[in-house]
Amino acid sequence: MKVIEILNFNKELLNRIQNAGIRLGDCRYIELYDEYKNRQRQGEKITYIVTVLADKYGISERKVYDLVKRFESNCKLFAV
């Protein structure tokens, strides 16, 4: 299958995702966010969680904070 075929097949979904202000590359961090929320529910401190996850996923602590903020934000209203 060619790239253009996949894009055409998923065009409507991809347009909705983009219009909602969602970055397609963020899908690789879904597990990071799930782990963040689980650790938070267990009572771990935010700074500790961020440090551990940044090390585990090979990204900066600032990126972890940005991802959490972005994942917890509302979608753009006109796109939903």
What portion of the residues fall into strands of 2 or more residues?
A: under 5%
What is the first-to-last residue Cα distance? 30 Å
Helix-strand pattern? HHHHH
Mean pLDDT: 93
- Based on secondary structure, the structural category is mainly alpha
Would you report the number of β strands? 0
Q: How does the overall form come out from the CA principal axes?
A: elongated
What is the helix tally? 5
Summarize the biggest pleated sheet. Answer: none
Any low-confidence stretches, pLDDT <50, length ≥5? Answer: none
- What is the helix fraction of residues, given as a range? 55-70%
In words, what does this structure look like?
The chain has 80 residues and is mostly helical. It has a domain at 25-75. 64% of the residues lie in helices and 0% in strands. It has helices at residues 3-9, 11-19, 30-41, 46-57, 61-71.
Summarize the structure.
The chain is mainly α and 80 residues long.
Keywords, separated by commas or semicolons:
elongated; single chain; 80 residues
List the helices and strands and how they pair.
Blueprint: H1 3-9, H2 11-19, H3 30-41, H4 46-57, H5 61-71
